[in-house]
Design goal:
Heat Shock Protein 90, elongated, 2 domains, 15 helices, 5-stranded mixed sheet, 443 residues, 5 strands
Length: 443
């Protein structure tokens, strides 16, 4: 019966060794494969902008991790074949296990610390004497708690396997995360089972195992929380990726060029009407058109590189809206009326971008398609929503067909979980509701 029990412990420990070997090689191996893919697809610049650190040589890192794990196995076999000899050999090999495990965790930049469970298992099985045993136990537990990626990453730039996982599409991320978390969970489960068998064999270690079990439970809860966060992150990444890759340039350049060209067209029409009668007024009008054109060119350049309009880079949201109104009033002859019942128009960047672009596109459509003379813009708060209405007195449209501009108005607002309604029965109206993330700074 004792032999069977010892065999079970041996098989469990061998399983832990295999799991840890796979996990230790998985981190550098996955990073190496992903790095090659990044280079092959010429994505290095985009990738480097989103990470804090990268390993110097992922290929060399893989061999270094393998070499340290072989050293760990040598220490294991020395201890296994000298269990009847001096306690010094047992403690020397356990200390060697501890040092090698810390070295593995260090070169992996704390992306995997499960190898310390092998140290825990050896401590429980072989350590004799209260002083040395409790000292090594304390060091091992302290190392496990300290060797946490999120904790170390607060003060030092570390490369993260999650940054490399995020390089792939959302569907692939789920499978990679599942595999990565499965290795961590299997290692924990194997260690817990090992502890149970040791407790049955050595009743004197029950207090130490209980303490470790409590720590493992806490670690498992943290792992579950991390899994939830990773799932949420994968969903957000997928949504952002779909919109960013498919629509960014088309939407931004359309908004900017549409606004600028509409202003130029309306200004030129005004010049044609006044050129014979009032040349000085026509010259002044052309100067305004030139100013709008230069501003539009700058905005197009900025839109190619990023999502935020030039006006919002320089001004607050309210000032940017007023500048937009001033420009359109000066070059097109249309009268734009603006009223805000919100004391301070200050929101998150994505919310301000959406509000500004919706107003810009709606005013442009009122001039280009609606032939409007007046546009009324109103903003008010109906907590927790922001209500934005753009109404014109143009020709309207009885049959609503969504074009490029209105389609992207809808997409922008839906990205913020808001709603848009279009009404062409009396002029044309755009009704927007956005669940603003109101904070103290907005009040």
């Amino acid at each position: 019966m004792q032999l069977q029990h010892a065999d079970k412990l041996k098989y469990i420990k061998v399983s832990m060794i295999i799991i840890n070997l796979i996990a230790v090689l998985f981190v550098p191996g996955f990073i190496y494969i992903t790095t090659r893919s990044i280079y092959d697809h010429f994505m290095a610049r985009d990738f480097l902008q989103n990470v804090e650190a990268i390993p110097n040589d992922p290929f060399q890192l893989m061999f270094l991790a393998a070499g340290l794990f072989i050293a760990l196995m040598i220490s294991y076999f020395v201890r296994e074949h000298h269990t009847d000899n001096s306690i010094k050999i047992i403690y020397a090999t356990i200390v060697a296990d501890f040092v090698i495990s810390i070295a593995i965790i260090w070169i992996l930049n704390f992306n995997y610390n499960g190898v310390l469970f092998l140290v825990f298992a050896n401590l429980i099985t072989y350590a004799k004497g209260n002083k040395g045993k409790y000292l090594l136990m304390f060091l091992a537990i302290a190392s496990f708690l300290i060797a946490d990626f999120d904790l170390i990453g607060l003060n030092y730039p570390l490369y993260s396997i999650h940054d490399y996982i995020a390089y792939y599409d959302a569907n692939t991320q789920k499978y990679i995360l599942a595999l990565y978390n499965l290795m961590i969970s299997l290692n924990m489960v194997a260690f817990i089972i090992y502890c149970i068998y040791v407790i049955q064999e050595q009743r004197g270690t029950i207090d130490e195992v209980s303490m470790l079990y409590e720590k493992l439970t806490q670690a498992n809860e943290e792992l579950q929380d991390a899994n939830v966060q990773l799932k949420e992150y994968a969903v957000i990444t997928e949504k952002i990726g779909e919109t960013r890759e498919r629509n960014r340039l088309a939407r931004e350049i359309h908004d900017t060029l549409g606004h600028t060209l509409t202003g130029i067209s309306a200004g030129v029409d005004a010049c044609l009407a006044t050129i014979d009668k009032t040349p000085n007024q026509t010259k002044h009008q052309l100067e305004l058109i030139a100013e709008v054109t230069r501003s539009g060119i700058l905005d197009v350049r900025r839109s190619v590189n990023k999502l935020r309009p030039d006006a919002l880079e320089r001004l607050s949201l309210e000032s940017a809206i007023l500048e937009l109104i001033r420009e359109m009033n000066s070059v097109s002859g249309i009268k734009i009326h603006f009223a805000s019942k919100v004391e301070t128009l200050k929101f998150d960047e994505d919310e301000e971008n959406a509000i500004y672009r919706v107003i810009q596109e709606s005013v442009t459509n009122a001039i280009r398609h609606g032939k409007a003379s007046n546009v009324w813009i109103s903003i008010e708060r109906e907590s927790p929503k922001l209500l934005l209405t753009i109404q014109d007195d143009g020709i309207g449209c009885k049959v609503m067909k969504k074009g490029f501009g209105t389609r992207h108005i809808t997409e922008r607002i839906e990205m913020l979980n808001g709603t848009v309604q279009f009404d062409g029965s009396d002029g044309f109206a755009v009704h927007v509701q956005i669940p603003i993330r109101w904070g103290e700074e907005y009040d």
